[in-house]
User: What shape does this take?
Amino acid sequence: MTVIPGFLDNGREWAPCFGLSWAELLLRDQAISQQIIRPGGQYFRKVAGTMGVAAGRNEIVERFLASDAEWLWFVDTDMGFSPDTVDRMVASAEVNDADVLGALCFAQKQDPDLAEAPFHGQRFRIIPTLYEFLEIEGSGEKGFRHLAKYRRDQFQTVAGTGAACLLIDRPALEILGPNPFSPITLADGGGQGMPRTYSEDLSFCIRAAAAGLKVGVDAAIKTTHCKGGIFLDETAYAMQQETLIQAKGHEIAQLAQWAARRQDGPFGKVEGVMAG
Assistant: This one.
């Protein structure tokens, strides 16, 4: 199998975890697989800012389709991964008959359910980038929701995933045609007749679903995601979920204690509120 890696960066820096992982992966590929380092082998790099991500991915797809490689591997330059990641992703995609395969990645999203932190701080949660697509009954809102309980260390079909560590086969890209990462806007996707525009990676997944392509994530293929000294991975996610469970249990216990004190105060059972 022949693979071409493609990535975007800001033209100034890569995360150390990416640089080290990239070097180790290429060394392993040269010694064992030679799927990337081979006669005619290459990689595609595109310098792009935040607003140019979709166009950058589309350009890489165009360059890939002009090559003779069988697989395009997108990887972000703030990701860390094992040296055998590409080999395992290709093997998993073939075994599971997936046209598009993501590794297990995590994103950081602002939590709308929590109050703003003191001194104008923001609160975030780690989420796995495995998504289902749903429509909210009543409002008609259409969107992606992450799967908090994914199948650990297993492959599973998903409606969407991110492009931080994503393998796509040539036939899928040929079917999708030019500019598969251009953002899609659904006229009624926001609910109540309002439009919604989806990110470039989820827009790609919408197109893939419409074309009948199989999109999956193999949760046995791990990554880490560098966010300014904080690393998002499966262990960090598990710790967060356990903390949230404990916090919820503490909240329930406090409510129960408060209710008990209301019923049995120091002067006996309190039926109501006394004045004076």
Observations:
- Confidence is low (pLDDT under 50) at residues 265-276.
- Helices lie at 16-33, 53-65, 85-95, 170-176, 200-210, 234-263.
- The domain at 3-232 is CATH 3.90.550.40 (Spore Coat Polysaccharide Biosynthesis Protein SpsA; Chain A).
- The two ends are 84 Å apart (CA to CA).
